[in-house]
Design a protein that fits this description.
The chain has about 550 residues and is of the alpha+beta class. It has 2 domains: about 240 residues, no CATH class; about 170 residues, no CATH class. The chain is built from 10 helices and 22 strands. The strands form 5 sheets. It has a 7-stranded antiparallel beta sheet. A 5-stranded antiparallel beta sheet has the order 14-16-21-18-19, with helices on one face. Helix 3 packs across helix 8, helix 6 crosses helix 7 and helix 8 packs parallel to helix 9. The longest helix is centred in the middle third of the chain and has 29 residues. The radius of gyration is 23 Å and the shape is globular.
Length: about 550
């Protein structure tokens, strides 16, 4: 007898529900992009949308930003510890201590109840009965996280290279109600954005993008409730649980192929701060231990447990040769040990005493992935950085990340000029860039020969991808910030493959002379000054 089409044990039914869940978040992402105002969201697509189960565990994602997605579950759970949810609530936060990543990334969370502020006609009869009895239950959560190019701080763009505490990076938003039971309080959010020690320079744009984020969540809420009305809320929950179990089984099989044992590696940031990992794969449990990694970073390269979880979740997903979303079930049989330090700093309530984190999200996250892949020998190192470029003044800020070379692997060459691993953004079209900002794009090209060669012994191998070259000429006085890595050592090759070339960046002054810029740096520029960025190439893979 065939399985019931609503039975989670039926693989066809599970596949159909997986696609239904994915459609929910895809629609959220499309609406967020269409309704946002900022270049950062509308053009660069620097946002992520996710569906989570009733316990706040990540179920499915749209193909957005890995560093966002793996942290959203932890964020929803941390916020839920301090929030008593009701239908119609909307909460936002960017606080690293509540599962946030860095302050520009603002998360908007909406619980999806069986009795939302929707027409009763879309609700199943059993739900209407529970609503009448005052017993409405959470079906799941929808959430999105979008990067605001400006949210305060000591420098335009909210990514100050010299920040030493959280307050210097911008407006800190602990879990804050944007709406309580359907009643919105936009003035309170505007006041928070304006009232910090270093307030936002673009409050109207912040509010416009937050309105788009709310609309996206509303679309996700409606879509999830349509599924619950059609198939039953408990059936939806069951398929969420089964998808998590499927992800756990996939991770178990992938780790079993690698084999039981201990795998370890160490990588260092450009300033020498170590990231160490030990991976103990056992029959029933895998322990991933980051003991020995750097203590709390004095600058802005501190990460959070949410970022570390994102990196681990992403790497586990790479190991699985089947179409699975970034589901937190991948971590069901994995124990993470993250000692206090650069990867798990403490966050006092006072932002002026809390560590800076803006580079931890974009740069340290990439280096964590590099370290995990090095331990497992999955591929050579990719560019290992997002090459963050920020410029602006007191009236605007612009932010972009630049692609580079991907690492080669056993049987494939690395791609050239692409974003790799924890980032998945686009780059602003030249026409839009030059129309909206006082800058001219002079050059954007492949950095030929920057990828690491294959086996140097003449036995063949696979070459790493090439990086990029990007040159911007500024048309008025501006402040420029750079956050990057792999400027001292190139991305590693594996099995005899050569390292990729490290990145470089400098300012060519219109008045004459060249000013070199280090990995994490900033400066003032005058009209006619030129920023030149050469991004790293990926490492090569030898024939061994």
């Amino acid at each position: 007898m065939p399985h019931d089409s609503h039975d989670p044990a039926n693989p066809i039914a599970l596949e159909l529900f997986t696609h239904r869940f994915a459609q929910v978040v895809a629609e959220m992402g499309e609406l967020l992009q269409r309704t946002a105002v900022s270049v950062n969201v509308k053009e660069r697509l620097d946002f992520s949308c996710a569906l989570l189960d009733d316990g706040g565990r990540l179920v499915v994602n749209a193909p957005h930003i890995p560093v966002h997605l793996g942290a959203l579950g932890l964020c929803v759970r941390r916020v839920s510890e301090s929030i008593d949810w009701h239908p119609g609530d909307v909460v936002l936060t960017n606080h690293p201590g509540f599962g946030g990543s860095h302050l520009p990334d603002v998360t908007v969370i909406t619980p999806v109840f069986e009795s939302p502020v929707l027409e009763p006609a879309v609700l199943e009869p059993v739900v209407l009965e529970r609503v009448a009895e005052g017993k409405s239950e959470v079906v799941g959560f929808v959430a999105n996280r979008a990067h605001h190019a400006e949210i305060g701080g000591t420098r335009p763009g909210s990514m100050p290279p010299d920040a030493s505490c959280l307050a210097e990076e911008g407006v800190v938003l602990p879990p804050t109600f944007l709406a309580r039971q359907g009643v919105f309080d936009w003035p309170a959010i505007a006041s928070a954005l304006a009232g910090a020690l270093y307030p936002s320079r673009s409050i109207e744009e912040n509010l416009a993008d937050l309105a788009a984020a709310v609309a996206a969540n509303r679309r996700g809420e409606t879509a999830l409730l349509e599924l619950a009305s059609r198939y039953g809320a408990e059936t939806v929950r069951q398929f969420m649980r089964e998808l998590s179990s499927r992800a756990a089984r996939g991770a178990r099989r992938a780790l079993a192929k690698i084999g039981c044992g201990r795998y370890a590696a160490e990588e260092r940031l450009d300033d020498g701060s170590p990231i160490k990992v030990s991976i103990e794969i056992g029959e029933d449990r895998t322990v991933i231990d980051f003991s020995g990694s750097s203590g709390v970073h004095p600058g802005n390269l501190n990460a959070t447990p949410g970022i570390v979880r994102s990196a681990v979740l992403y790497v586990l997903r790479l190991l699985i040769d089947e179409p699975l979303p970034l589901n937190e079930g991948l971590l069901e049989e994995v124990e993470l040990i993250i000692p206090t330090g650069m990867l798990n700093p403490e966050f006092p309530e006072d932002p002026s005493r809390a560590p800076a984190v803006v580079g931890g999200n974009v740069e340290t996250s990439q280096r964590i992935v590099d370290t995990l892949l090095k331990a497992l020998r999955v591929s050579a190192c990719s560019q290992g950085t997002m090459n963050n470029v920020v410029f602006g003044n007191e009236s605007f800020a612009y932010y972009e990340t630049i692609g580079g070379g991907a690492g080669a692997g056993p049987g494939f060459e690395g791609a050239s000029g692409v974003h790799t691993h924890m980032t998945n953004t686009a780059i602003t079209d030249p026409e839009i860039l030059e129309q909206r900002y006082p800058v001219r794009l002079e050059r954007f090209a492949i950095r030929r020969g920057s990828g690491g060669a294959g086996d140097s012994g003449g036995l063949g191998g696979w070459r790493g991808g090439d990086g990029l070259m990007r040159e911007l000429v500024f048309l008025e006085p501006l402040t420029v910030s750079i956050l990057s890595q792999h400027r001292k050592e190139g991305p590693y090759g594996v099995a005899g493959g050569a390292d990729g070339k490290p990145g470089r960046q400098w300012i060519e002054r219109a008045a004459g002379g060249r000013q070199a810029l280090s990995s994490v740096d900033g400066c003032e520029v005058a009209p006619g000054d030129r920023l030149v960025v050469k991004t790293p190439g990926g490492g090569g893979w030898g024939s061994a």
